[in-house]
Amino acid sequence: MFSKIRSLIFKLDPEKAHDLAIKALKFNLVSLNKIKNNKSIQTEIFGKTIPNPIGIAAGFDKDAEVYNPLFKLGFGFVEVGTVTPIGQYGNPKPRIFRLEEDMALINRLGFNNSGSEKVKSRIISNSPIGLFGINIGPNKDTNNRMEDYLIGLRKFYNLADYLTINISSPNTENLRSFHNEDELNELLNLIEKEKKILKTSVPIIVKISPDIEDQNINTISNLLLKYNVEALIVSNTTDKNRENLSNINKLEKGGLSGKPLEKRSNELINKFYKILKNKVKIIGVGGVDSGQSAYQKIISGASLIQLYTGMIYQGPSIALKISQELINILDKEGVKNISDIVGSKN
Question: What residues are labeled active site?
Answer without folding.
Answer: 169
